[in-house]
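Predicting holo structure, magnesium ion bound.
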Amino acid sequence: MSHLIVQDIHKSYGALTALQGLDLTVEKGEFFALLGPSAAGKTTTLRTICGIEAVDQGRIIFAGEDITGTEVRGRDMAMVFQSFALYPHLSIYDNLAFPLRQSGMAKGDVTQRVNEVAEMLRLGHTLARKPGTASGGEQQRVAIGRALVRRPSLLLLDEPLTNLDAKLRFDTRAEFKRLHRELGMTIVFATPDELEALSMTYLLQNHLLRGVTFGTIKK
Ligand SMILES: Nc1ncnc2c1ncn2[C@@H]1O[C@H](COP(=O)(O)OP(=O)(O)O)[C@@H](O)[C@H]1O
Ligand SMILES: [Mg+2]
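Done. Tokens:
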């Protein structure tokens, strides 16, 4: 069975229809693109998949279970926001520890898990600092790390390269390639840029671009 099945999702904000009958199917371990211009509904799609936003109609099936009504924390997935959305008043260590503490994990286990993720993302030297003192690339890696600490089986990335300069885009693409290979996660990512979608999937899946294009398909 497919890892993620989105069936006939509808979502409106007042009079504005953001999603009108969206369907998509993502296989386990796949790197799947949501491609479309600004305001096409990409972020709304990611937010409904992870449960930050409730759908008006339709179903979300994940790992064989209907999770349409499941709260955010009960879903084995995490989202990296386009703006990173780090907690500015917390240290980078505490940003990474936050989702684990929320889930009630014991202190020793939190420390171990945070250190593992920090090492994987080369953030060890930044842990005591506040996010505001970190470089753009480090902030991006903290945002990714905060999503990875709970070891979700599905990672949702909202325009992961848009706010980065050219050099960082290159490094970040390589980082995702490594994470995808090492962790075997299913990744769904949104991008407004067809070349970016191709370059991400080219690195990861040998030319094979699978995804949904918003605006030209049933939406
Ligand atoms: N919280 C919200 N309240 C009202 N309208 C919203 C809200 N979130 C998104 N929208 C609208 O829904 C549409 C889709 O937005 P979004 O999913 O953010 O698109 P994208 O990520 O593709 O740029 C847009 O017209 C946007 O203005
Ligand atoms: Mg968006």
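Helices lie at 42-50, 92-102, 107-120, 136-148, 166-183, 194-205.
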